[in-house]
Amino acid sequence: MTNRFLASILTLCTSLLLTSHLSIAATQKTVLITGANRGLGLELTKHFVNDGYHVIGTARKPDKATELKTTKAEIIQLDVTSDQSIASMANSLKGRTIDILINNAGYFGPKLMTEKPATLKDLTKKEMQDCLAVNTLGPIFVTQALLPNLQKSSQPIVVNMSTRASILTHKTGGNAYGYKVSKTALNMVTRTMAADPSLRGAIVISLAPGHNKTDMGTHWANLDPTQSMAKVKTLITSLTPKHHGGFWFFDGSPRPW
């Protein structure tokens, strides 16, 4: 066997290997998850990474996102309430395709549900403004900034993380005004986005993840986020146009507005 023949075989193998890697890179979908440094966002990141997706996880303080760093996700700084931070994120992703955007970053309020959230007598304007800034305005302007990236996908998906507490007919307590109002407003954001020509061809949904044992959900919750987010990932990756503009529970069942 001549050296020239061996060289030809080596060149062919290298070419086939390179073609294979390029093919995998071309077909690998990219998911961007806001608020990925803990809770539901972190669990979703793990599930998508394990399933072969390229995940971009955002965090307000990436240097402190210790567990997120172990997931092999790409980490980008993002404060969804900051115009400058949103613009910086969009600039760093310029020209790249985003197939799935999960607007997950959320804020319950200054007090957890186990700490007696504010009723009308002690509710502050700041609490309302902070909840609306994170839960309602954040998803609007993050999605706006990433429109060029989403439009590069063959069928982009936008998931706005809502809650059953946003449902107008849902039995509710007389507290946590900021959280409930901002999430109900987010549902209208979803319905408006679903009809927006800028997102023509996309699938846009609101998703209620259920009550999970996280820092926000507290120990009162009945769901293990590792298991519930596995179902959420399955739902998101199996979305079809029939889901577009709807409100869905983590197990795939429809929710009323």
Oligomerization category of the chains in this entry = single chain
Strand content: 5-15%
Q: So, the CATH homologous superfamily? A: NAD(P)-binding Rossmann-like Domain
- The class by helix and strand makeup works out as alpha/beta
| Helical content band | 40-55%
- Average pLDDT level: 91
Rg (CA only): 21 Å
Report on the biggest sheet: 7 strands, parallel
Number of helices: 7
CATH top level label: Alpha Beta
**CATH fold call:** Rossmann fold
Annotation, overall tally of beta strands: 7
Write the layout of secondary structure elements.
Elements lengths: L2 H25 L2 E4 L5 H12 L3 E6 L14 E4 L5 H10 L7 E4 L21 H21 L1 H5 L5 E5 L15 H18 L8 E6 L16 H13 L9 E3 L8
Parallel strand pairs: 1-2, 1-4, 2-3, 4-5, 5-6, 6-7
Helix pairs in contact: 2-7, 4-6
Quick synopsis:
The chain is α/β, with parallel strands linked by helices. The chain has helices spanning 3-27, 39-50, 83-92, 125-145, 147-151, 177-194, 225-237; strands at 30-33, 54-59, 74-77, 100-103, 157-161, 203-208, 247-249.
